[in-house]
């Protein structure tokens, strides 16, 4: 900028000199012209004033240029000093780092790596601890929720149970009526037993006739036929045959009615007539003292509740629970009932393998391929395997419980054992002076293994060995 101004002033000055010289040349020729001379003088004065002004500005610009140069030199000097200071700092920093590495016995990279590993280990330990805490909290909440769901399911599905029996007793008012049932030379009783397929026990108890047969439908036909015959008073082979046929037709109607009532109870409609008739036979079928209608209704209610809670296919679960024991009323030589039930499901619902698997897998010999199948398993177990639902022989029950305790008590280091929850769990107390914590798993394994090899039992038996800690093994 200063150079530009200087150039401009120089240009103006040169122009002024040329003008002055031109005026000087013309001065001689115009000496006589006074007015022109006067004007020239005025021009000279103005030009001189302008020249002085330009000289003054030039001096100012030169002064500014000098000041700027001084500032520039100062800035350059400051930057140089800054670079020198930075170089010195880097040198001192390197010296300090070398001394620190010498004292610590490791390089900076090694120290950084060691610190990173330490922080990583601490974070890993912290994360692991937090994960365990979260898992424990989730497990406790899940167990509590599961217990609540099961309790609610059992409360919703609680029913009464009727003991299984192979006999039916008919009370008669007049002992002489037994003679009519026997008939001349026993013709009536032989005809009756042949047509109904039952055994009549007449002479054991006064005023009572006992009907013995493993088939509850046959017993029901016989009982109704006897009541009708004695009520009518005409008892002979012809009336017996007529009455039995009529009762059998009535039983078929009752079976159909029962099947429809079951479907209404569970809220399912539109099933084929063959399924309805099979379901109706549940009324006369018992399993370990548990009536099949009661068990089925209970299983459906439990399964529906569990399916709703677990967001499963409720329709499939309900239908599978309804049909899971239908094979029990269709006896087929050499096949287990759950396989027969699955075949029936495939026959009536050919495009629903999810349903068939849920039915067939409920006794664990077939893989459960869906959550619906697992729910059917659980529902059946809750209804049928809990204490009181089914009645085993009392003596067999006592022997089974004692056998479980004997297996536990003979293990080395065991102080005592208790079979609880109707024999579904064994709690074993060990002698702390004769065992260590490491022995607990071995004792639990040995007990569970011997139970598996020597005992027959439904479901799962849990073995809990207690010292200062508790280790659990399950015999499946």
Strands, helices and their partners?
Blueprint: H1 2-27, H2 34-104, H3 108-157, E1 167-171, H4 177-182, H5 187-196, E2 199-201, E3 208-212, H6 216-232, H7 237-266, H8 273-280, E4 286-287, E5 290-291, H9 292-309, H10 314-323, H11 337-348, H12 353-360, H13 371-385, H14 394-409, E6 414-420, E7 425-430, H15 437-454, E8 461-466, E9 470-475
Parallel strand pairs: 7-8
Antiparallel strand pairs: 1-3, 2-3, 4-5, 6-7, 8-9
Helix pairs in contact: 1-2, 3-9, 5-7, 6-7, 7-8, 9-10, 9-13, 10-12, 10-13, 11-12, 12-13
Shape: elongated
Question: What's the CATH class of the largest domain, please?
Answer: Mainly Alpha
Largest sheet: 4 strands, mixed
Distance between the termini: 100 Å
Tally of separate helices: 15
Report the helical percentage: 55-70%
Question: What is the level-2 CATH architecture name of the largest domain?
Answer: Orthogonal Bundle
Strand order of the largest sheet: 6-7-8-9
Whole-number total of structural domains: 4
Beta-strand level of the residues, as a percent range? 5-15%
Which fold name is given in CATH as the topology of the largest domain?
A: Hypothetical protein af1432
Instruction: Provide mean pLDDT, rounded.
Output: 80
Q: How many strand units? A: 9
Q: Which sequence of SSEs, written as H and E, runs from N to C?
A: HHHEHHEEHHHEEHHHHHHEEHEE
Helix/strand-derived category reads: alpha+beta
């Amino acid at each position: 900028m200063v150079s530009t101004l200087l150039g401009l002033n120089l240009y103006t000055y040169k122009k002024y000199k040329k003008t002055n010289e031109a005026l000087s040349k013309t001065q001689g020729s115009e000496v006589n012209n006074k007015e022109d001379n006067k004007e020239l003088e005025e021009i000279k004065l103005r030009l001189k004033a302008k020249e002085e002004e330009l000289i003054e500005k030039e001096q100012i610009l030169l002064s500014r240029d000098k000041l700027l140069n001084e500032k520039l030199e100062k800035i350059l000097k400051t930057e140089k000093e800054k670079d020198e200071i930075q170089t010195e700092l880097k040198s001192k920093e390197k010296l300090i780092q070398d001394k620190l590495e010498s004292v610590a016995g490791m390089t900076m990279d090694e120290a950084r790596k060691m610190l990173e590993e330490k922080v990583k280990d601490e974070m890993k330990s912290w994360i692991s601890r937090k994960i365990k805490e979260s898992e424990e909290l989730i497990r406790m909440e899940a167990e509590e929720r599961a217990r609540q769901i099961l309790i609610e399911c059992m409360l919703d599905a609680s029913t009464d149970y009727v003991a299984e029996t192979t006999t039916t007793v008919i009370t008669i008012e007049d002992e002489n009526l037994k003679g009519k049932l026997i008939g001349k030379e026993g013709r009536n009783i032989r005809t009756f037993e042949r047509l109904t397929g039952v055994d009549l026990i007449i002479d054991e108890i006064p005023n009572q006739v006992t009907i013995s047969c493993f088939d509850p439908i046959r017993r029901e036909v016989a009982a109704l036929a006897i009541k009708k015959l004695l009520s009518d008073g005409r008892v002979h082979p012809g009336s017996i045959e007529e009455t039995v046929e009529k009762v059998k037709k009535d039983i078929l109607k009752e079976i159909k009615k029962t099947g429809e009532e079951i479907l209404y109870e569970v809220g399912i409609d539109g099933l084929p007539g063959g399924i309805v008739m099979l379901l109706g036979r549940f009324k006369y079928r018992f399993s370990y003292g548990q009536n099949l209608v009661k068990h089925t209704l209970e299983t459906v209610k439990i399964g529906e509740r569990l399916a709703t809670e677990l967001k499963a296919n409720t329709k499939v679960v309900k239908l599978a629970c309804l049909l899971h024991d239908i094979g029990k009323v269709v006896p087929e030589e050499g096949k287990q009932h759950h396989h027969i039930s699955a075949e029936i499901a495939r026959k009536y619902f050919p495009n629903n393998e999810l349903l068939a698997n849920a039915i067939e897998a409920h006794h664990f010999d077939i893989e459960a391929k869906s959550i619906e199948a697992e729910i059917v398993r659980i529902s059946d177990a809750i209804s049928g395997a809990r204490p009181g639902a089914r009645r085993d022989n009392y003596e067999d029950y006592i022997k089974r419980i004692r056998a479980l305790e004997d297996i536990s008590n003979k293990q080395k280091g065991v102080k005592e054992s208790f079979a609880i929850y109707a024999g579904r769990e064994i709690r074993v107390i060990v002698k702390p002076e004769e065992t260590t914590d490491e022995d607990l798993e071995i004792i639990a394994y040995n007990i569970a293994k011997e139970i598996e090899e020597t005992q027959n039992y439904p479901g799962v038996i849990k073995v809990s060995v207690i010292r200062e800690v508790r280790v659990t093994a399950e015999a499946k």
